[in-house]
Input
Amino acid sequence: MSSRGKPGVWALAAGLATVAIVGPALSGDAATPSYAPSAAQLLPPGSAVEEVALEGGGFLRSRRIEAATGGGLRVLSESGWRTIGGVRAAQEPYRRRLWLGTDHQGRDILALAVHGARTSLTVAALAAFVAVVFGTGMGLASVLGGGLARAGLHLLADAALGLPRLLLLLILAVCFEGSTAGVAFAVGLASWMETARLVEAEARRIARGGFFCAARAAGASGSRLALRHLVPNVAPVLVAVVPLVAAEAVLLEATLSYLGVNPGGVSWGLMVADGQRALPHGWWLVVFPGSLVCLAALALNDLARGSGTAKAA
Amino acid sequence: MGRLAHAAGTLVAVFVLCFVLLHAMPGDPQDRLEAPGIPASEAERTRRALGLDAPAPVQLVRTVVSYARGDLGISIGRRERVADVLRSAIPATMLLGAAALALAYGAGVPAALLVLALPARARRSCERVALALAVVPRFWLGVLLVLLFHSLAGALPASHAAPPGGGGLASRIPHLVLPALTLAIPAAASICRYQLSMMEAVLEAPHVRASRAAGRAGLGLLARDVLRPSLSATAALAGLDLQVLVSGALVGESVFAWPGLGRVTAEAVLGADYPLALASALVSSAAIVGGRFLAEEAARRLDPRLGSPPGEGP
Output
């Protein structure tokens, strides 16, 4: 059952990460073309278009583009050739193929998806970090703290688990809305509970060990007990938990942005929500970004199984 | 009795947590309602009328008192009594949830049985598919189903619980299909995976070997000797599945504009409608905590070994 022997999973995860890091620089502009005639909108996957960057920023995308004789540019759209005055091309128009088509604003789906990868994976990584740090802190505090602290922390975890996770997340996300880091923080704060429980159980087991009692008897401080004796010993649990939390975070972030919480950038969930509005046409608007969410979540799940079997089996 | 008290304590903690978090949201309902033309004095008057000018602890006490009197307040966004909103939303969600739960178990358990009867290699691929179906985001699954069955096939309606102007039961069922499938497919996949792992464990048990020796084989053996002993654990999971279903309803109902609790809750939170958000969150939470409590009770009844109180087990 172990997927540690499967290079494919690691390749997929590494590929997604690479795309998220360097992709936006290579894939071109995800921004709306400054002038997108109807001929550039809702193009099916594989359509060929011509593009040209404009002087003073922005770019133009249509089926064919030519310089007009009296200045300006001539573009070919469905209704024939039209002249756009007052714009000057910064270079020769070039032709390229849009492998995933365009949306109803003429934006390139591939470029959007790549920019979305950056948002989604940043949120996932940050959220996993927040959840694991917060969860570990809570778990250790519950082991080292007194009975009252323990009861309080348990009550907080119970309350957080007593709400639907998505609802807790929705409330938190509205508090931190508007930036990628804020949404990541919200996702992390909605996912720490399981980590806290795992860490607590493991730390409690370790705290019964002889070396821990010896350290405590020798007068070690709480922070020394936690950092020197507990954290290194619960680390294997954390290694197994991080990819799982990240997989969940990818799904949660996509769902949040689908529901209308602004993730501070292009996001796969947002793309699906936009695509749904244009649904009778344009299946590619919803199929591609959603598949990417699934792919990322599956890859992280496999990583979790790979790193988990080493410990749990 | 301790368990019941624990469940009740959890609900109180949920209430306080929700209240604190809702009030930590930037801006208050008045900001979100404010139309550009409303003068500041008018906005202030509304704020006072809604009791939003008081400090948060005072508001908390006031809310507790009015809840104790059975008054859930008035929704700020809908200008309706919260109790009335919930009264119309809860049955819709229960209908959807019951349909989804029935579909999920109806498909998940037989699927596990069939998969177990497959040769090892095919079984691996089926497990893979089940994992993929279990992680597929619900909103996307919903949109895909709309794409397939509404946009392309034109067979099923894609939103709302009834045709415009209402209608009899027969005209409502088509509206139920896609939302119920959206919630049921991932749940069925997880049930299938869980049931499969339970049955794989039972497969090693001595009574199965004895049955094999007695000449039973194939699906008959699986259904009689493997499925039955492992079914109670999966059935007890139904209480825990409520958490997944309630969470799923939040997004599933938003995809299909289903007039249920999930959509009401999502709208109330996004619109900072404190009274409605608080009450609907509490209802969802009661379903989850209650479901978990019942699941534990059921598991304890079915398996006396689980009798020791939580936290003091081996």
Observations:
- The CA atoms of residues 115 and 123 of chain B lie 6 Å apart.
